[in-house]
Sequence to fold (355 residues):
Amino acid sequence: MEITNQPLGKIIEEQKDILANLIVDEQWARNPQFTDRYGATGRAKCVQDVNYNLSYLSQAIASNSPPLFATYIEWVKTLFQGLRIPVFELSESLEITGFILKQRFPGDETDIIIEHFIKTGLKQLTNAMEPAPSFLDASQLSELAHQYLETLRHGERSTASQMILNAIEQGTPVKDIYMQVFQPSQYEIGRLWQTNQISVAEEHYCTAATQTIMAQLYSRIFNTEKNGRRMVATCIGNELHEIGLHMVADFFEIEGWDTYYLGSNTPTASILQTLAERKPHVLAISATMTFHVKLVNDLIEQVRAVDPDRRIKILTGGYPFNIERELWRQVGADGFAANAEQAVITANILLESGA
Fold:
């Protein structure tokens, strides 16, 4: 029996642990030197990496979105180069992945789907690598953004904080600080980690420092006149990258909304209870990891079950939704926003149009 995209993606996700071991077994059988080169620890890490590959592949297939997988492979390619891991090992792993998947899930239609997505990934690996430009250079407050991040990288959080406060005292709007300093700085931190220019510890420090500095601005954010509208914001699953959604919630506060920020790792039952208690006009859901898109879909389905009249407007955002701009429709949301500023605009449009 033929399997279409969505069920095929689901099956791959369900069997990814078994599949990852089969793929690594095959690759190591083809490359006996891996045993001496990487050892048992390296093999376990390889299985973990292939498991991640399958998570992204399964969701891309389920969403029928080759760009989701291509963008992920581009990210891994850059990561490998930063770690000086031969990219051809990733290429071979993808080829073996296609081989194993076709064995496990035979059929003309499934073969076409698998072949298409694997070829998409392999093509991404053959594209010439262009050095990724700094995210800070595109900022209108580029000089401040560069100084801010450089100060954080030296571990001088207090100085970085004062730098931001001084800019605000001199007339720079808080929203501009968020969009032109904090956001590009976070993107740049991710780029530097991906290219092995900073450690995980430094990345965590810079992110935590920015969150602390954001909190110091709350007296300026929470003193706006309220407009009677309410929103709840939540990340999905065990998302670790929640600062973007925090910025979204702050933007709503600046515009006069009452916000209730849940962050990450909030059980679905607690989210539904919060919606019943707070009665928000808007629920904002963020997902950074592509393999969490299904969790977004599941949450939206449960919200719709308790709110069949769709009084709560649901906005989605985050990395996979930025890559696949129609993905919000697939998960059943009412709209999508690429950043905090757009989120407020979209929410207002949805409420005012009655959509």
